[in-house]
Amino acid sequence: MGRKWNNIKEKKASKDANTSRIYAKFGREIYVAAKQGEPNPESNQALRMVLERAKTYSVPKTIIDRAIEKAKGGAEENYDELRYEGFGPSGSMVIVDALTNNVNRTASDVRAAFGKNGGNMGVSGSVAYMFDATAVFGLEGKTADEVLELLMEADIDVRDVLEEEEAVIVYAEPDQFHSVQEALKEAGVTEFTVAELTMLAQNDVTLSEDDQEQFEKMIDAIEDLEDVQQVYHNVDLGE
């Protein structure tokens, strides 16, 4: 699977380091999760999952608390969860997840980001079948064999455990997210470099230098959109 998740996350975090964009996106996601269920991560699994992801991106506690308090206060902001699928240069594939309070605006913005950068938006289902929903965890301080053994002792059969760069990456089924996380925590893992649900391409593609430059420009344009939360693709960017 080798997607080098730590490097991908570090690149994204570095890109967002000088802006408040990533915090705003997490604030919105935390608010929606807290509003859809109890505003308490102990009883709201969706909220707990978002908070775990936020922790790996070092989202300030003030941002998290503000979003949860906003949900507790009965704010009437309502967001729709949307998924768009599309194509980039040389048949590259992209999935875009968004949270929006204006569906028409978001659809138009995403379509324009594709179209102005050498891509085009497809119909629902045109891309998603080439991706698998996957729970991904990254951790340091243990070997892949040690992690695999402790998961086996917890009677958890995951998809794969690999050593990538200086970290161990665990790939599991989406519904195993919490069981894997708890097993790792019970084994002494206190921090994760990655802890999230993602859409993992079944097969990566490598683009020419020109196509990759165009593709990265398109991805940047999509990620810059206010309503976009996550972008997944099947291109090996060589991180």
Describe the structure.
One of its GO terms (molecular function) is DNA binding. It comes from Domibacillus iocasae. The protein has 239 residues and is α+β, with helices and mostly antiparallel strands. The chain has 3 domains: 5-72, Arc Repressor Mutant, subunit A, CATH 1.10.10.200; 80-129 and 203-233, Alpha-Beta Plaits (2-Layer Sandwich); 130-201, 2-Layer Sandwich (Alpha-Beta Plaits). It contains 8 helices and 8 strands, in the order ααααββαββαββαβαβ. The strands form 2 sheets. The protein has a 4-stranded antiparallel sheet with strand order 3-1-2-8. 34% of the residues are buried.
Fold blueprint:
Blueprint: H1 5-16, H2 21-36, H3 45-56, H4 61-72, E1 80-87, E2 93-100, H5 103-115, E3 120-121, E4 131-139, H6 144-153, E5 160-164, E6 167-172, H7 177-186, E7 194-201, H8 209-223, E8 228-233
Antiparallel strand pairs: 1-2, 1-3, 2-8, 4-6, 4-7, 5-6
Helix pairs in contact: 2-3, 2-4, 5-8
